[in-house]
Design brief:
It is a single chain. The protein has one domain (about 5-200): Rossmann fold. Helix content is about 50%, strand content about 10%. The protein has helices spanning about 5-20, 30-45, 65-70, 85-90, 95-120, 130-135, 155-160, 170-180, 185-190, 200, and strands spanning about 25, 50-55, 80, 125, 160-165. β1, α2 and β2 form a beta-alpha-beta unit. It starts with a helix and ends in a 6-residue tail after the last helix.
Length: about 210
């Protein structure tokens, strides 16, 4: 049975040793996985962690503002970056779901790479969980945040080292960890919403 307290106790020294004195950019989508990873890192590493939510233009209405409000107590330094125009203009006219997912990945990590340089961060923290890489490796669908598991060298491609503390956990275990970390129920209990958001939830060509 998964024990969130034991998980935090075990992973804490590992994260601190790996990161050292470097800065960590934590990519937050507002979903339970990425937010739990970011709060975990912030609790363990403090202000070395810079949590960032990129508004891609494919979030729900007023999503970015709501997420920032939800997390005001557990992630008070969350930064919202407006990239709506970049994403929508680059993906406009695309129709096929898998192609849109891959283009989204390219745009997302290009944006992340720019932010890494801006904040002088070496590591990227993200909330990849076991189901993400199982689905991608199994050919079910491409999850935009699955990188090293399919042979993508993030240091060569974008100049950052990836940290994925939840990569061996499944959704029910992540929810348990979120509750243990005292995330608000609006986050810990929310239904899955893919990183590319409405882009892949809406069938057909983006006009």
């Amino acid at each position: 049975m998964f024990d969130p307290a034991s998980f935090v106790k075990e992973i804490g020294p590992q994260l601190k040793q790996k990161v050292g004195n470097e800065r960590v950019l934590a990519a937050v989508s507002g979903g339970v996985d990425s937010t739990t990873a970011a709060v975990l890192a912030y609790n363990l590493l403090g202000n070395k962690v810079i949590p960032v939510l990129i508004d891609t233009g494919f979030l729900r209405k007023n999503e970015a503002e709501k997420i920032k409000a939800y997390l005001s107590n557990v992630l008070p330094n969350l930064i919202v970056v407006d990239e709506r125009e970049t994403f929508t203009s680059e993906i406009e006219g695309m129709e096929e779901a898998e192609a849109k997912r891959k283009k989204f990945r390219e745009l997302f990590y290009s944006s992340i790479s720019s932010l890494m340089r801006k904040f002088n961060a070496k590591y990227l923290m993200q909330g990849t969980i076991a189901a993400d890489w199982v689905e991608t490796q199994g050919g079910i669908k491409t999850q935009h945040n699955v990188l090293v598991q399919i042979g993508i060298d993030t240091e060569k491609e974008w100049g950052f080292t990836l940290i994925e503390p939840l990569a061996d956990l499944y959704k029910n275990e992540v929810r348990e960890l979120a509750r243990y970390l005292k995330l608000p129920k609006e986050i810990s209990e929310r239904q899955p919403f893919p990183g590319p958001g409405l882009l892949v939830r809406t069938i057909g060509k983006l006009d």
